[in-house]
Amino acid sequence: MTVDSRSGSSPPLYHEIQHFRQVWLWALVLFISLLSLYGAFQQLILGKPFGNNPAPDGIMIVLAVLFGIGLPLFMYTMNLTTEIRSDGLYYRFFPFHLSFRRIDTKEIKEFEACTYSPIRDYGGWGIRYGRKGKAYNVSGNRGVQFELSSGKHLMIGSRRPEELAETLASILGKR
Questions:
Q1: Of 40, 52, 78, 110, which cross-links 64 as Cys (Cβ 3.0–4.6 Å)?
Q2: Distance from C-alpha of 146 to C-alpha of 144, rounded to nearest angstrom
């Protein structure tokens, strides 16, 4: 797998952007965010210590910025972008990958759209390593499992795995 900026590459034949939008995840993120902002407001504005062993004011400011603003912003901007182009599969898990990663069509040995267990097979969502290889997923339990010529396995989560696999099959001539 090589890093590629896609410069000079053909237009995408398939394009998908996925975000973390699960209600339970956002409830947790917003709870943490609001708790840190409430603590900072109570201690810094109202002058009442937050908790039995309050943090110094400087630490409260840092916590409010990191968890009150930074965490929700980080979660909102995080996304998985997947593209199929005539020369291969491109994927980027922003903000961890600032540029696209490319798997050349010659490196793809096998692939199939499938349903999997994110927790059992990979330990959850995100960039994960599990007993079935490496996975990039943000929600759901569907994707395309790849076997590369190197013997490595890669799962790319998708809301439209059949379309992803069909598009890849068409450029590889495997219809």
A1: 40
A2: 6
Spatial CB neighbours of 16, under 8 Å, sequence gap ≥ 6: 81, 82, 83, 158, 159, 160, 164
The class that CATH gives domain 80-172 is: mainly beta
In angstroms, the CA 31 to CA 42 distance is 16
User: What span, in angstroms and rounded, lies between the C-alpha atoms of 83 and 60?
Assistant: 42
Distances (CA, A) of 21 to 24, 29, 85, 127: 9, 11, 27, 16
Please state, in angstroms and as integers, the Cα–Cα distance from residue 91 to each residue in 4, 46, 95, 108, following that order.
10, 47, 12, 14
In the chain, which stretches have pLDDT less than 70? 1-9, 174-175
**pTM recorded for the entire structure:** 0.83
At 9 the pLDDT is 65
